[in-house]
Amino acid sequence: MTPELVVLDMAGTTVADDGLVERAFTAAITAVGVPADRHPPMLDHVRRTMGQSKITVFRALLGEETLAQRANDEFRRVYEGLVHTGHCVPLPGAADTIRVLRAAGVKVALTTGFAAGTQHAILDALGWQDLADLALAPGPGVRGRPFPDLVLTAALRLEVTDMRAVAVAGDTPSDIRTALRSGAPVAAGVLTGAGTAADLRAAGATHVLDSVSDLPTALGVLPCEGN
């Protein structure tokens, strides 16, 4: 059946990353005094946990809460600076995909592992503030991936009647785990970001797609005339 709600990740799924996360992360750990010889294993951890809440990643790597918060604040400053200077572009076909879904009566939520301020900086830079029905980031009462909170909160706020009518798409194993833990029957992985096909299938992806542009067809949602 046609889903009531599609929950889409941002960086790597609908928005190109192009190494921005790693650039901002490197700047953040440098700013809080992490020596250069410790950067490679930390960056490996960042790659493995792509899609998760950034403050959670900093807490895991730096331990001390004050240090993690300082690093997270620096990450946000650097990443948002890159966004504001034009280093943020949509993935081909992503905006059209959202429009096709909404024109077919499907609600769309954009979710992220970034802080809400960073998410809105991206939406502003792309002119996407009104593109989807909802934009949602981790925050008080909403844990980040791989917890199911982002999907469940989107379903609650958009008044979905049945979790079996929810589809989720993202580019990382964390996106897939979030989808499955929420009870969504569609956990689609896309190959435009951090995860490989093997990574996504190992996490339990129900579909592996070349890009988010393939999602409407996979869901059986046909473009309305004029879209």
From TrEMBL:
Origin: domain of life: Bacteria
InterPro entries per the UniProt record, alphabetical: HAD-like_hydrolase_sf (IPR050155), HAD-like_sf (IPR036412), HAD_sf (IPR023214), PGP-like_dom2 (IPR023198), PhnX-like (IPR022468)
Classification via Pfam families: Hydrolase (PF00702)
Matching NCBIfam families: PhnX-like
Name the record gives this protein: Phosphonatase-like hydrolase
Organism name: Amycolatopsis thermalba
Higher taxonomy: Bacteria, Bacillati, Actinomycetota, Actinomycetes, Pseudonocardiales
